[in-house]
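Postdoc handover notes: sequence design on the structure in folder B. Input tokens:
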């Protein structure tokens, strides 16, 4: 009887333990934490930029033509015309090496749209103030013989010369762009992009010309100079100005690093072209005294020259910037446990 009771007790204990174990939850390995969401580029952004700009086409051409010259149009003596009178304009013609460069800085606003994990399109507009400036000069000179007459041992010669200085100043006061962007997302926090579109800006140019003419009438006997009269006269005027807003185009590229959910740093290069302008300079007029030779009085010594300046406003920009992005991180997935 005792043996039967013991066996029954053991069986009941084993069955109760099995039933209790069946009611306990099974132990499972813990789930791995969810991966952090990738950075989101889609959305609006604003930012600041600063950099340096240098000119691309630095050659400024100034061409000057002679409009009127007393000796060329009226002559010093009756029927004696100076055929080389227009040479005076050569002293005021030449090229200026305008090395435009300076600081550039401002702000930008834009919108990005990320499609897929690797590509982005966007639109950006920016506006900058600039210190892009240049000022340079050239000098020119020429001389020629207007005429020579000889009568036996006696001779009369009229020699002329001109010396000119031309200074050109250019500046870009402000510059803006409206550009599309197409980029490849790598990392996923890095963006490599190409960009291009509209450029616009306010530009100025000023040309100052001066001209000094000298006329020398000399007499000779047997080829030796015995007398000379030199009459110099300087110019007035010769100033040209251009001040307009220009529209052109721009192209470039850059890289951008999204180093925080809402902040990015960029480095960018742009080439811009606002086109070529031409403007007239004011008349470069030189007026001197009248001359009386052998009873003939010439009109007042006058030389009038007209200059035109041709300058192209284009250049390169290297800059860095920082942007604040108005984007929200995607919600973190919640794993339900049962």
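Designed sequence:
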């Amino acid at each position: 009887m005792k043996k039967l009771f013991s066996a029954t007790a053991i069986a009941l204990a084993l069955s109760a333990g099995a039933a209790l174990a069946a009611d306990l939850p099974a132990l499972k390995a813990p789930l791995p934490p969810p991966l952090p969401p990738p950075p989101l580029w889609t959305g609006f952004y604003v930012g600041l930029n600063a950099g340096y700009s240098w000119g691309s086409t630095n050659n400024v051409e100034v061409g000057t033509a002679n409009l009127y010259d007393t000796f060329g149009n009226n002559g010093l003596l009756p029927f004696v015309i100076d055929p080389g009178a227009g040479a005076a304009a050569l002293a005021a013609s030449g090229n200026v090496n305008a090395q435009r460069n300076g600081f550039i800085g401002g702000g930008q606003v834009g919108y990005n749209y990320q499609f897929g994990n690797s590509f982005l399109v966007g639109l950006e507009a920016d506006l900058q103030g600039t210190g892009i400036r240049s000022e340079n000069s050239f000098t020119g000179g020429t001389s020629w013989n207007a005429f020579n007459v000889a009568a036996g041992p006696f001779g009369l010669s009229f020699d002329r010369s001109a010396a000119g200085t031309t200074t050109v100043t250019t500046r870009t006061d402000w510059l803006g762009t409206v550009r599309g962007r197409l980029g490849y997302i790598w990392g996923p926090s890095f963006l490599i992009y190409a960009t291009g579109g509209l450029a616009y800006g306010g530009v100025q140019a000023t040309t100052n010309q001066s001209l000094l003419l000298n006329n020398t009438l000399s007499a000779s006997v047997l080829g030796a100079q015995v007398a000379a009269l030199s009459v110099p006269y300087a110019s007035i005027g010769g100033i040209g100005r251009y001040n307009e807003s220009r529209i052109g185009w721009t192209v470039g590229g850059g890289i951008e690093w999204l180093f925080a959910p809402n902040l990015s740093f960029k480095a960018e290069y742009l080439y811009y072209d606002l086109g070529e302008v031409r403007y007239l300079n004011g008349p470069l007029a030189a007026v001197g005294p009248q001359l009386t030779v052998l009873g003939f009085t010439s009109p007042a010594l006058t030389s009038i020259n007209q200059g035109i300046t041709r300058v192209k406003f284009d250049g390169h920009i290297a800059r860095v910037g920082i942007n604040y992005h108005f984007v929200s991180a995607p919600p973190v997935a919640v794993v339900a446990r049962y």
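Context for whoever picks this up: The longest strand covers residues 119-151. Don't rerun without checking with the PI first.
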